[in-house]
Design brief:
- 37% of the residues lie in helices and 15% in strands.
- It is an alpha/beta fold.
- It has a single domain (57-387), classed as Aldolase class I (TIM Barrel), CATH 3.20.20.
- It has a 7-stranded parallel beta sheet. Strands 9-1-10-11 form a 4-stranded mixed beta sheet, covered by helices on one side. The chain has a two-stranded antiparallel ribbon with strand order 12-13.
- Helix 2 crosses helix 10, helix 6 packs across helix 7 and helix 6 packs across helix 9 (206-218).
- The chain is globular.
- Bound molecules: ligand V47.
- Ligand V47 binds next to strand 6 and strand 7.
- Ligand V47 is lined by residues 82-84, 121, 184-187, 189, 224, 226, 228, 259, 261, 263-264, 268, 302, 323, 331-332, 335.
């Protein structure tokens, strides 16, 4: 007779009071967040995240957009230890700075009428003035007026303020005048000073980063927020980071999307920790973020950093957005990422549909452009280009 194996005790019961709180729609505390991170009961944590996402967004739709990343320069006055993108001098091998005109031409082949967003972030150039950044926005807006400009992190806004002697509000007002539509979530890294001072000591501190987003919200802009995880921070630092974001959202309300960024360790000063982040850690981080950030509309599984397969799984762990087509990604690929630099629309539809959800193409502000609720074959191209050449798509009839 077959012997049944003893069922190992799960940690579900450890979390039962947190499960009850989430069921009741109650806000979780710092200690609750820490217990979720410390738990290995990934399925319960994921289930709770699903529940929160369903409450906020329903469980049917997953968002994506057709966007184009632009990194105008990699020359940077700051020396962040996790960064593999920056070059410190203009004549360092690999350093580049594109003029506004060069940017307009460089992206032309990729810009069609369904591209709705340019995501613009880059180095803090040590010698160029604020006009360089303003001119980039103006040139892009003039040439591609239908495309939303999501540009410059809180750290860049603080740098522009130092460059010009103007306050953050004035800098933002001038950028809005030039075409700024919203701000991306970068530069948040880890807020806690014990970590921030080690990984990016020159960057705007937590209070400044948060205040800049508060001012942007006050001026009517939506912004995003990120957290760089998997380097030298602990679970305590992650929870502290999430709670600070939640408090800022309570105050100013303009955050749209939270994006956990999985640290990549190549070609930088920080290198790799022994327990370098795993798929388990990534799914847990997405899930705990979704549960704690009860006042954020969206959580994004950024496929570039997570890899498409893990981003796809994250759609069952609280994420409702998979980012976009991206097209040209430098920051993460300079750090050794081996993912593609772009996915086409069909790839995104396939990833989303395969988990039983309906893809929704959105613009930056989550206005719906198209709902893809027909069978996947409806949208399949006959062939597609990959890095290694053209691949024919076979439409195989089963049966
Ligand atoms: O702030 C830098 C991160 C960020 C590394 O708002 C690294 O929709 C991992 O913020 N390993 C910029 N990460 C990217 C960013 C972003 C990305 C996608 C969407 C949005 C959005 C924002 O990249 C930086 C930093 O945290 N980063 N170096 C690295 N080695």
């Amino acid at each position: 007779m077959l012997q049944t194996l003893p069922i190992p005790a799960t940690q579900t019961s450890d979390l039962s009071d947190i499960v009850a709180k989430v069921d009741a729609g109650e806000r979780l505390s710092y200690d609750d967040g820490l217990r979720l991170f410390r738990s290995n009961d990934l399925l319960t944590v994921g289930q709770l995240a699903n529940q929160v996402n369903t409450r906020i967004n329903g469980d049917k739709y997953v968002y994506f957009n057709q966007n184009r990343h632009i990194n105008p320069t990699n020359v940077c006055a700051f020396h962040c230890n996790f960064c593999s993108f920056a070059k410190f001098k203009e004549d360092t091998p690999g350093a580049y700075t594109w003029t506004p005109e060069q940017i307009v031409e460089r992206i032309r082949p990729d810009v069609h009428n369904r591209v709705t967003e340019f995501h613009i972030v880059g180095g803090l150039h040590p010698t160029l003035g604020f006009d360089y950044y303003v001119d980039i926005l103006r040139a892009l807006k003039k040439e591609y007026p239908w495309v939303h400009l999501k540009a410059f992190t809180g750290v860049e806004i603080d740098f522009f303020a130092q460059l010009t002697g103007k306050d953050h509000r004035t800098v933002l007002e001038e950028l809005i005048e030039a075409g700024l539509g919203s701000m991306p979530g970068g530069g948040a890294e880890i807020f806690h000073p014990d970590i921030r001072n080690k990984i990016c000591p020159e960057k705007a501190d937590a209070a400044t980063w948060l205040a800049i987003h508060g001012i942007a919200h006050d001026l009517g802009l939506h912004t995003n927020a990120t957290m760089l995880y998997g380097h030298i921070e602990s679970y305590e630092h992650r929870v502290d980071h999430l709670i600070r974001l939640r408090e800022q959202q309570d105050r100013s309300g303009g955050f749209n999307t939270f994006i956990p960024l999985r640290y990549h360790p190549e070609n930088n000063n920080l290198g790799r920790r022994l327990d370098w982040t795993t798929a388990h850690d990534t799914l847990k981080t997405i899930a705990v973020s979704r549960i704690l950030l009860d006042n954020f509309p969206h959580v994004k599984a950024y496929w570039i950093m997570l890899t498409p397969p893990i981003a796809q799984l994250a759609l069952h762990f609280g994420a409702d957005d998979i980012d976009g087509t991206v097209v040209e990604e430098k920051i993460y690929h300079d750090a050794g990422a081996t993912t593609e630099e772009q996915l086409d629309k069909f790839d995104l539809l396939r990833l989303i549909k395969a988990v039983g959800k309906t893809p929704v193409e959105r613009d930056t502000l989550y206005n719906v452009i198209e709902i893809y609720d027909q069978p996947i074959e409806t949208y399949a191209p006959d062939s597609r280009k990959t890095r290694r050449g053209e691949v024919k798509i076979t439409h195989i009839e089963l049966n």
